[in-house]
Amino acid sequence: MASRVCPFANGRLNEDVLGRELYGGVEGVRHDDAVGWYLDTYAGYAVAGDWRERGSSGGLVNWTAAKLLETGRVDAVIHARACDEPGVMYSYQVSHTVDELASGAKSKYYPVELSRVLEYVRAHDERYAVVGIPCFIKAMRLLEREDPVVAGRVRYHLGLVCGHLKSSFFALAEAWESGIDPDRVDSVDFRYKIPGRASSDYGIRATGTDAEGRPVEVVRPTRELSVTNWGYGYFKYNACEYCDDVLAETADMTCGDAWLPDYVRDGKGTNVVVVRSPEIRDLFDEYAGEVHLEPVPVEVVARSQRSGLRHRREGLAYRLWLKDRAGQWRPVKRVQPSNALPRHRRRVYEGRIRLMDESFKAFREARRNGGGMPFFVEYMTPIVRAYKRADNPLWRRIGRKAKHIINTIMREK
What we know:
Layout: H1 2-5, H2 15-23, E1 30-32, E2 36-38, E3 40-46, H3 51-54, H4 60-70, E4 76-82, E5 90-95, H5 98-102, H6 115-123, E6 128-132, H7 134-146, H8 148-153, E7 154-160, H9 168-177, E8 185-192, E9 203-209, E10 215-221, E11 253-257, H10 261-264, E12 271-275, H11 278-286, E13 291-295, H12 298-304, H13 306-326, H14 343-369, H15 372-391, H16 394-412
Parallel strand pairs: 4-6, 6-7, 7-11
Antiparallel strand pairs: 1-2, 3-12, 3-13, 4-5, 8-9, 9-10, 11-12
Helix pairs in contact: 13-14, 14-15
């Protein structure tokens, strides 16, 4: 069963197949290669309550989960929130009240797993909504094909747009670079909204203790930290390099950050939203006064995740080709293996693989030798430099320089 429900091992039941089974018969549904099946696409945010302030961006995932609870559509929500277990910051838990749900707002770039809460679902005859990133939602859909008890109890699937999942090293490194020893970190808020700044210019808030055991709290803008450049892929799961689902295509609705010029300047945050289930659309219509939803073309949603989609489609094709050339196992994906890319793009994807691999080695060595984050930064600097050269080749630098010179001359004239 583990192989049949694993979102990577089961290549036969991909997101296109599952999505067609789930939504292909819905009246008015359409399909897009980037977004999957969809009824409606929006940009927006929660107006009611403080869900927007609590959330990473527009707060619509948690508003929706709360409304499912409040209206009696579900009895509980399965989601990640702070964990009391020593050494574990976050875990999947079951929330039965809006207050419990609110304690789990915001994104957690931290490893979590579903087995414990699924044991709870099997033992408690209730109706559930589950919140998850694409591979978790797909795993739930595959499990529900195998387990009629879970299938009968999980009623709604709320998806999150995903760049990639991080190991626990990410949280520890952010806190360490902010001044808290990794052995004394208690928690990290990965999406701390800094007043007066653009939504993309957020910070982290790390808590822990100092060497004398006194409580410590540090807030740092992520742009001041070396490990938070998402494009570098530090501490990324290798499985994430073989995923082609960015927008949780098997979820009843998906929310992500509206990384677009029209929205990013609003520091409170805005979601892009994909609605696939008529019941979710009805919920939005019924409580239209509690949300601000601006209909946008599906292309706008895809454009908001352009970099992630390129890495998961163009880049995935090349990574699959590399695996095949090496004679190594890899998942069966919707994307076909190919090396038909310009040389500099191939170097970019090779550089990202190296950044991912070396970040783990550098962090372990920094802890082993006592060099701390300065050692980590020094170790990674030449690797980052090589990647940047690949991502910004000489011909592109020359072109930008020429364009700058021409624009300067035209302004003077």
